[in-house]
Design a protein that fits this description.
Blueprint: E1 10-12, E2 18-20, E3 23-25, H1 34-45, E4 49-51, H2 59-71, E5 80-85, H3 93-104, E6 109-114, E7 132-133, E8 136-137, H4 148-162, E9 166-172, H5 176-182, E10 193-197, H6 205-213, E11 217-221, H7 235-244, H8 248-257, E12 262-264, H9 270-275, H10 284-296
Parallel strand pairs: 3-4, 4-5, 5-6, 6-9, 9-10, 10-11, 11-12
Antiparallel strand pairs: 1-2, 7-8
Helix pairs in contact: 1-2, 2-3, 7-8
Bound molecules: NADP nicotinamide-adenine-dinucleotide phosphate (NAP).
Organism: Cerrena zonata
Active site: 56 (proton donor)
Binding site for substrate: 115
């Protein structure tokens, strides 16, 4: 019997739905319109999960890809589409979702995430999306002590309760302290997913263990460390890719998928999109050795200023979070 591809694996969510374990990320490249061809290539290669967000400004290009794919016979129900409510749109999650649905040209998303557990200052349309005063984010609620972020998640729950516009709801960039604040205040739906930066260089095992205990699926962004792809250059990742005769990206995806997590790589190299869908069956020792790379020398590659004060470890520039331990 042939082994399943990474694109064929689904994971069960805590609300009864299922999520495809390999997603294609749609953060904009130099020219955002390149996302249309990227998504078409990915879906034709077998990807069923598209990860997007209002903030990326690429949803209308994803929408063009969907239109093209539907015209070719692909069905909406065969695809899993994730979008997110950005922190400057915190006051109007349903309006943010409506804008996303309109740009995507669809009537529902499979998963709606709160992009960050903070509330930055945005107008009625969530603009500007990066409200800065010098080096500092302009907030509508204190990022360390504020609790408005909980109301935002509750409003996202209400969309699931009261409309047919979302199947599942979840969160992104939640640390353990923020999860501990949120979980007792959940109205009805424990987040199905927490999307965070995760790779063999940043295993964050305390956070993934916490999510596992609460039946929250961890979804890994920047699985190769983002632009420059430092993780695929790691000698041990290259060694495993050579051993299994696969792309180094298959190793970084397998690191997550074999641990029951979602992996969200991004690529505009169409050959890479088509090739990196294999799921090498890494041994437990190999998975442990990958984990040790980051345990011994943790490296976070996304250090956005709106991550300050959220209680994450190893966030460069963060002077707001309290010391751990
Ligand atoms: N929730 C959040 O706050 C959040 C934050 C960041 C990202 N995300 C999501 O996660 C997705 C992925 O994040 P990311 O963009 O940081 O992902 P990533 O997959 O870690 O990095 C993508 C970059 O690595 C390059 N790359 C991949 N494999 C390579 C290889 N073998 N050799 C050389 N370069 C290689 C790609 O270039 P090529 O185009 O040449 O392949 C691309 O520039 C995003 O698109 C977005 O959907 C979410």
């Amino acid at each position: 019997m042939s082994q399943k591809l990474a694109t064929e694996i689904d994971l069960p969510l805590n609300d009864g739905h299922r999520i495809p374990a390999l997603a294609i990320g749609t953060l904009p490249p130099d020219l955002p319109q390149r996302v249309t061809a990227q998504v078409i290539t990915a879906v034709k290669a077998g990807y069923r999960h598209i990860d997007t967000a209002w903030y990326y400004g690429t949803e209308k290009y994803v929408g063009e890809a969907l239109k093209h794919l539907f015209a070719e016979g692909y069905k909406r129900e065969d695809l899993f589409i994730t979008t997110k409510v950005w922190h400057s749109f915190w006051h109007s999650p349903e309006k943010s979702l409506d804008k996303s649905l309109s740009d995507l040209g669809i009537s529902y998303v499979d998963l709606l995430l709160q992009h960050w557990p903070v509330c930055s200052h945005g107008d009625e349309n969530g603009l500007p999306s990066e409200p800065m005063e010098g080096d500092y984010v302009k907030y509508d609620d204190d990022p360390v002590t504020g609790t408005k972020f909980i109301d935002v998640y509750n409003a996202i729950e209400d969309i699931k309760l009261n409309t047919n516009k979302v199947k599942s709801v979840g969160i992104s960039n939640y640390s353990i302290p923020k999860l501990k604040q949120l979980l007792p205040k959940v109205k009805k739906f424990v987040p199905a997913v927490n999307q965070i930066e995760l790779s063999p260089h940043l295993p964050q095992k305390d956070l993934t263990d916490f999510c596992d205990q609460h039946k929250i699926i961890v979804s890994a962004y920047s699985p190769v460390g983002g632009t420059g792809a430092p993780v695929v250059k790691d000698p041990y990742v290259v060694e495993l890719a050579t051993k299994y005769g696969v792309e180094p990206n298959d190793i970084t995806n397998a690191y997550h998928i074999l641990n029951n997590r979602v992996s969200i790589p991004r690529s505009f190299n169409h050959d890479r999109i088509k090739k990196a869908i294999i799921l090498p069956r890494l041994t437990k020792d190999e998975l442990d050795s990958l984990y040790k790379l980051g345990e011994e020398n943790p490296r976070r590659y996304t250090n956005d200023p709106w991550g300050y004060g959220l209680g994450f470890r190893w966030w460069d520039g963060d002077t707001l979070s309290k010391e751990f331990d």
